[in-house]
Design brief:
This protein is mainly alpha-helical. It is built from 21 helices and no strands. The two termini are about 30 Å apart.
Length: about 375
């Protein structure tokens, strides 16, 4: 079997993982036919995005005359797998809500950055310009997506998190279509843009990588809560179009899949470093006054220090993350968080105020980040000029 050149160290990986390497590699060329068909029809029909939005809000039956591709997609997502248990899904969201600002820290400085580190998986993001050229807005939309996902009840069919997840699925398909239409995409090198392989890796960034990062900062997560959190993102992955074979059913499965993906992934490249720099510079990009700029520089220094702690020095150095004195505050942060967590576990109903505070935190992040506007999650209209 021949794989794209981005799929590296294949012989070494086979010696460790056997034929699972070849089974994983097959997903480098697989995409999301249901979403691709919808996007093709959206481009042909005037007002198609409005019709799709209406269908997410009120059901496909509310949109007479919708293309067959719409019906096929909504029929697929209408079937809730047997393993989805709503109380467990909501409990999974509470894991991140209880973490409050620590959750935002891990998502921004570990999960997203590790996504940029993948030299194959980061290419659609580079071509679309969805971070490098529009970093603050896109990061805030990611925060909105996460907030909607972890809000209790929001991932039920027809609810807000469910709606946003389907729109994100179409955004992926739209970017893939635009990239292929340029005729300049090197499939022999990079495989299919936004492939199933890369979607699986992204799902792990929001699930197992977040659990690892929270534990690094001293957050105590029980096996039951970890299982619930994994189930939440398994359901999110199902909705966003990840192949069921690539959706881990447990933390242990996620760890094994992550190790397999890492074994065949090359080191960070120049795009990885550019994307990481854009993320770290986002507060400076958004600053409008000297006071805001001074505060943004302090935030950037803190972010660099915590990123090195969460990523580890080898990966942080490969990504060009500078070292700051904040790195040496990480052990103090960990001890403080561990002490607070111990109190939370011993006080009756200690989770309640933590979840309430976390809910307010995510609401404030979205409110401030989007300046009172709602994240549009509309289809991108063009690629980055440098692509």
């Amino acid at each position: 079997m021949t794989f794209p050149s981005r799929f590296v160290n294949v012989s070494e990986a086979r010696a460790r993982f056997g034929d699972r390497v070849d089974r994983l590699g097959a997903f480098l060329t697989r995409v999301d036919p249901l979403a691709d068909a919808v996007v093709a029809d959206l481009e042909r029909a005037h007002g198609g995005w409005r019709v799709f939005d209406e269908a997410t809000r009120h059901g496909i039956a509310s949109t007479p005359g919708a293309p067959d591709s719409f019906h096929a997609l909504f029929e697929a997502v209408a079937r809730v797998p047997l393993w989805v248990d709503w109380p467990t899904v909501d409990r999974g969201g509470e894991v991140l809500l209880r973490a409050g600002p620590l959750g935002g820290l891990v998502l921004g400085l570990k999960s997203l950055v590790l996504g940029y580190a993948a030299p194959g998986g980061n290419k659609p993001l580079v071509w679309s310009g969805r971070l490098k050229e529009q970093a603050p807005r896109r990061l805030n939309e990611t925060a909105r997506f996460v907030q909607a996902t972890i809000t209790p009840g929001a991932m039920h069919p027809g609810r807000e998190g469910w709606q946003i997840t389907l729109k994100v699925r179409l955004i992926h398909a739209r970017v893939r279509r635009m990239i292929l239409e340029t005729g300049r995409w090197d499939a022999a090198r990079w495989c299919a843009p936004a492939s199933q392989h890369d979607h699986a890796g992204t799902s792990l960034l929001f699930s197992i990588i977040v659990l690892q990062g929270l534990r690094q900062l001293g957050v105590r997560i029980t096996p039951e809560d970890a299982e619930a959190y994994m189930q939440l993102w398994r359901w999110s992955g199902w909705l966003v179009g990840v192949d069921p074979e690539l959706l881990p059913a447990s933390e242990a499965e996620a760890l094994r899949l992550g190790e397999l993906i890492a074994a065949t992934q090359g080191p960070p490249d120049d795009d990885s470093r550019a994307l990481t720099r854009a993320l770290l510079d986002a507060p400076l990009t958004a600053a409008r006054t000297p006071r805001e700029e001074a505060n943004a520089r302090r935030i950037r220094s803190f972010s660099c220090g915590m990123a090195r702690e969460l990523l580890g020095d080898p990966m942080a150095t490969a990504l060009g993350v500078p070292s700051t004195t904040w790195r040496y505050m990480a052990p103090l942060v960990r001890r403080l968080v561990s002490s607070v967590e111990l109190v939370r576990e011993t006080v009756p109903f200690g989770d309640v105020p933590a979840v309430w505070a976390g809910t307010r935190y995510w609401e404030r992040v979205v409110e401030v980040g989007l300046a009172g506007a709602m994240a549009e999650f509309g289809l991108p209209q063009g690629l980055a000029t440098a692509a």
